[in-house]
Write a structure and sequence with these properties.
About 75% of the residues lie in helices and about 0% in strands. It is built from 12 helices and no strands. α5 runs antiparallel to α6. The radius of gyration is 25 Å and the shape is elongated.
Length: about 300
């Protein structure tokens, strides 16, 4: 099916969107077919795994969610038991689990998942009139739903979607978008006067793209297939573009400062020119990435 659509006719995001739609359609069908208690939790688990849309780290989030679920259920049951030993402890336990669930969002995906599951177990047990029956049923149903969701994601991502090489397509598309956005910044710097609104909008666009690739590089450390696809050349590209972006912003700020020579203006200008030349040779594309005219260029003379 995806071969017929081909890369040339659909973008990375369009193909990825179709893949996610297929996964969710299959998940809904499976929920109806299994008829297990709380079958809707399967779709919820799949949805949480696919949050962020990105192909490169789906399996990474899948396994982290599984281990986070296991640790969360075990620790949640212990916290629920402590809460029934003395109900006053719940005043401390519930706010702490909610706090850590949000405070640790930026860490490994299993960590906030564990505290989220803690909160779900304690919340379920809080209304169970002190009996373990409701909590045990919740733990069993939640575990079964997460295992089914894990199997669905692994089946589609590893055995079906893997052969379409979307990681390489994502890298290629994002790399071209970064170059295009970088050209917009350089075109602004090559003018005699720079619109502050246009400059800040271009910076925001490039920051968003660099944020995507920085996340990809960081998460690829946890997934073999992603690490293999990313490679040293792309890591070098990401590092170099981040350095160039920082220096371009420093150059812009230094020029518009009343005493820009105090900010090592000439040194920053020469450094960013060298880095732009390195980027040109790295990407091996016929694009002109230099500051060759305008007020900022003339100020360096």
């Amino acid at each position: 099916m995806f071969d017929a659509l081909s890369y040339n006719r659909l973008s990375y995001r369009a193909i990825r969107g179709l893949q996610i739609c297929i996964v969710f359609s299959f998940t809904i069908f499976l929920q109806e077919w299994l008829r297990m208690p709380h079958a809707g939790w399967i779709g919820f688990s799949v949805m949480m795994i696919y949050v962020g849309f990105d192909h490169g780290t789906t399996l990474f989030r899948t396994f982290h969610r599984f281990w986070g679920m296991i640790l969360g259920l075990i620790s949640g049951f212990l916290l629920w038991f402590l809460g029934h030993v003395d109900f006053r402890l719940l005043i401390l336990i519930i706010p702490l689990t909610i706090f850590f669930a949000y405070f640790l969002v930026g860490h490994a995906y299993s960590v906030p998942t564990m505290f989220t599951v803690n909160t779900a177990v304690i919340g379920t047990g809080y209304f169970s009139t002190g009996l373990t029956t409701t909590v045990n049923s919740f733990i069993y149903d939640y575990t079964a739903a997460t295992i089914v969701a894990l199997a669905i994601c692994v089946f589609f991502e590893y055995f079906i979607f893997r052969r379409y090489g979307l990681m390489q397509r994502f890298i290629s598309d994002t790399q071209l978008q970064i170059i295009q956005q970088l050209k917009i910044l350089l075109e602004l710097l090559n003018r005699e006067s720079i619109s502050k609104v246009a400059w800040f909008n271009a910076c925001i666009g490039l920051s968003q793209l660099l944020g995507e690739v920085n996340n990809l590089v960081r998460n690829s450390e946890f997934e073999y297939s992603a690490h293999k696809a990313v490679g040293n050349e792309f890591n070098q590209f990401v590092t170099l573009t981040n350095q160039i972006f920082v220096n371009l912003k420093a150059l812009y700020s230094a020029y518009y400062s009343p005493r820009y020579h105090k900010h090592d203006y000439n040194q920053v200008f020469n450094q960013v020119q060298i880095q732009l030349q390195q980027l040109e040779s790295l990407i091996n594309l016929s694009v002109d990435l230099t500051i060759k005219s305008g007020a900022i260029y003339n100020a360096n003379k």
